[in-house]
Specification:
The chain is of the alpha/beta class. It is built from 27 helices and 20 strands. The longest helix has 28 residues, at about 410-435.
């Protein structure tokens, strides 16, 4: 959060006074909510929503304000935080940034919730959806791709001899070249705005790589195609908007990179940002991913080796004797030496670690994140040379960036250096994570090796907790923040969530009550199931038997699994008479499976969805579409995951119980999400059934059951 600077003699610009909640802002919020009620047909005021508005207003209207709000289904979270955030943002000249965990919620906010809120309240604000660059067409790349065989060498597998040739792409197919032309035609005809998520032709991952450009390879306003560039247009729209909707990954990336385009932040300066994080239970996982690094040693060695010809071309194109204080021969030697070191280190690691025969996903993990001492000299040398080569690429790119639009060789060099710089930054991040010392008293980084099916050796480094990342990116610098979700706490206890996310002690944390009569509308059923989940053969067989006997096969139901193998096995074991009523996730795309389920229910037939985590969160199946939710086992975090295992080891080394601090809070949040699929309106009724006998036999069982929603209990 923003902190007031200490006064100092001669300071040119004093810190602005800290914001506090004023009566005028309170009145703005009250009036907006009153107009929302009056002008929204069928609006039903709810006590929990009014509580949410009050908590969110107190946080967003104050410098350094932070609120954590658990709001169950039916509270109306989006209208709650919009009722607080929009009036406060307009009154204080701040930008309201709303970050979500899923594309579905982003679309709902931009297409439905925010326009409806602004219309009902009469408030006037520009709205924009912020996406990453790979969501937009690069006209320059698409034109060159479609130019035909004369351009094909630019994407060849051989080491490039010209600055514009790309190092690491495979050649495009004829279908991809044709598709690029159709995309450009649609853009030129103004039938399409360049958003690849709404492309007029299918865009494969391979084609997307060819027709998009990372920020490091973009010429910005100097590009000959700048006037028609979808990215530049989208960025302008975002900068001019007063309400911006984005995703967690782009939010954290933009905060991490700071001023990234033409000296301007992508979303907003942190000190001018009012941040609302919806689906906040995803934030920690995204933050950990942002801080993680992965490196395939063989690929890295080949990529660095192929840079040698690029280095020679760069000196010729830039007409420089030195770049980053290195002569051409010195830079080439640096790349050649680094490639040799990477190959040698790979050989050393292969000799040090031999995966067990038959291991499908072989992994070696450093205990407590500590790598062997005899690896460290090689790691230090790799880290130093990687950083030096990365600095050379950055310096060359900066020189190429000064090219005039009519200097095509420098322009092509700039574009080639962009992906190369990203590659070197990824390598640098890995070695930095492997060489650095962990802070005393803080969880260590997880460090491990893995081997893929092709025998390629991968090095990994990752934080095990999001706390440090979020403290530095959000809680310290962003002006004010609200984080909300239906599942943040274990029951009403925010201790695990606050520790995992580094939430400051002064944050206001509130768990709102459900607006539904859950005791009357639903039952929580935990039968004395005869087989434990760890019985690989017996548990699926008993699940199939139970479903056959106990489900109402004439209505809509959902059965949720924690593993694809068990889901497929149970589907296979179902009696033939039931199989036609079962729709299994993955047998068609998610949208098709859900649409088929709803069509069956609308036609008066029964239907049962078999799904994994993504079905257990976010699906809205009110009424007859879902009258029973079966949870096949308690979804504990996988203890063999390298990050979880490292964190667990560290907690245990400090005399703490990792199962209580990691596994149970994770299970509670996921179970609450799963159970939330059942009651979506105040007229829904049904059952949540958990087929896990451990809830009746283990000491943690009562803790989990007591923290779940207050359905009528049918236990044992």
């Amino acid at each position: 959060m923003t902190e007031s600077a200490s006064p100092s003699a001669g300071a040119a610009t004093p810190e602005p006074p800290a914001r506090t909640l004023t009566e005028a802002v309170k009145e703005d919020v009250r009036q907006a909510y009153q107009r929302l009620q009056a002008n929204t047909p069928g609006f039903s005021p709810r006590r929990a929503q009014r509580q949410m508005i009050g908590v969110a207003t107190r946080a967003l209207a104050s410098s350094g304000g932070i609120a954590v709000i658990q709001a169950p289904t039916g509270v109306g979270k989006s209208l709650g935080y919009l009722s607080a955030g929009v009036p406060v943002a307009l009154a204080t000249n701040r930008k309201l940034v709303i970050s979500t965990g899923t594309v579905a919620l982003q679309s709902q906010l931009v297409d439905r919730d925010i326009p409806a809120f602004l219309k009902a309240t009469g408030l006037d604000a520009r709205v924009a959806l912020a996406k990453g660059r790979t969501r937009y067409l690069c006209p320059r790349n698409a034109i060159e791709l479609h130019a035909g065989p004369g351009q094909a060498s630019m994407f060849g597998d051989e080491a490039p001899s010209e600055p514009g040739e790309k190092l690491y792409d495979r050649p495009p197919t004829s279908l991809e070249i044709e598709a690029a032309g159709r995309l450009m035609q649609a853009l030129a005809d103004r039938d399409w705005e360049g958003d690849l998520d709404d492309a007029p032709v299918p865009v494969s991952p391979a084609l997307r790589r060819h027709v998009t450009t990372p920020s490091s390879g973009c010429s910005g306003r100097r590009c000959a195609h700048a006037l028609q560039c979808p990215v530049l247009k989208a960025r302008t729209t975002v900068r001019e908007a007063q309400i911006v909707v984005t995703n967690h990954a782009l939010l954290l990336a933009s905060l991490m990179q700071g001023e990234i385009e033409n000296g301007q932040p992508l979303l907003a300066p942190p000190g001018e940002m009012l941040l609302v994080v919806d689906e906040g239970h995803h934030l920690a996982g995204v933050a950990i991913d942002q801080g993680a690094a992965r490196l395939a040693l063989g690929d890295a060695a080949r990529q660095v080796r192929r840079m040698e010809s690029l280095i020679a071309s760069a000196y010729r194109t830039l007409d420089k004797d030195t770049i980053a204080k290195l002569l051409p021969g010195e830079a080439v030697d640096l790349a050649a030496g680094l490639a040799k070191q990477l190959k040698a280190f790979r050989t050393d690691l292969e000799q040090a670690w031999t995966p067990a025969p038959g291991d499908r996903e072989p992994v070696w993990r450093a205990p407590l994140g500590r790598l062997p001492d005899d690896w460290m000299p090689s790691i230090e040398a790799l880290a130093d040379d990687t950083r030096n080569l990365r600095n050379w690429v950055h310096a060359a790119q900066q020189m190429a960036a000064k090219a005039k639009p009519d200097d095509p060789l420098r322009e092509r060099l700039l574009r080639t250096l962009g992906p190369v710089l990203e590659t070197m930054e990824q390598q640098d991040a890995l070695w930095t994570g492997w060489r650095r010392e962990d802070r005393e008293g803080q969880p260590p980084m997880a460090r491990w090796l893995s081997m893929d099916r092709d025998g390629e050796l991968h090095c990994h480094a990752s934080p095990v907790s999001a706390a440090q990342v979020l403290r530095s990116l959000i809680w310290r610098d962003v002006d004010a923040a609200v984080i909300t979700s239906a599942t943040l706490a274990g029951g009403h206890d925010f201790q695990a969530f606050a520790a995992e996310n580094g939430v400051p002690g002064h944050a206001e944390m509130v768990s709102l009550d459900s607006p539904f009569d859950l005791q009357r509308q639903a039952q929580l059923v935990v039968p004395r199931f005869p087989v434990a989940p760890d019985d690989r053969e017996g548990h699926p067989r008993e699940i199939a038997r139970y479903l056959d006997a106990e489900l109402d096969w004439n209505r809509g139901s959902m059965v949720l699994f924690t593993s694809r193998w068990k889901m497929e096995k149970v589907a296979e074991l179902m009696p033939q008479a039931r199989r036609d009523a079962v729709l299994v996730q993955g047998h068609a795309n998610k949208r098709q499976v859900v649409a088929e389920h709803l069509q069956r229910i609308a036609g008066g037939r029964g239907s049962v969805l078999f799904g994994l985590n993504s079905f257990g969160e976010g699906l809205d199946l009110p009424g007859e579409a879902c009258t029973t939710v079966v949870i096949t086992q308690v979804p504990f975090a996988v203890p063999t995951d390298p990050q979880t295992a490292t964190l667990g080891e560290w907690l245990e080394s400090r005399g703490l119980n990792p199962f209580a601090l990691i596994a149970i809070p994770h299970a509670l949040r996921t179970l609450t999400q799963f159970a939330g699929r059942l009651i979506r309106t105040d007229t829904d009724t049904g059952r949540v059934i958990i087929l896990d006998s451990r809830l009746l036999t283990k000491r943690y069982g009562p803790q989990i059951l007591d923290a779940l929603p207050p359905f009528e209990r049918v236990i044992g």
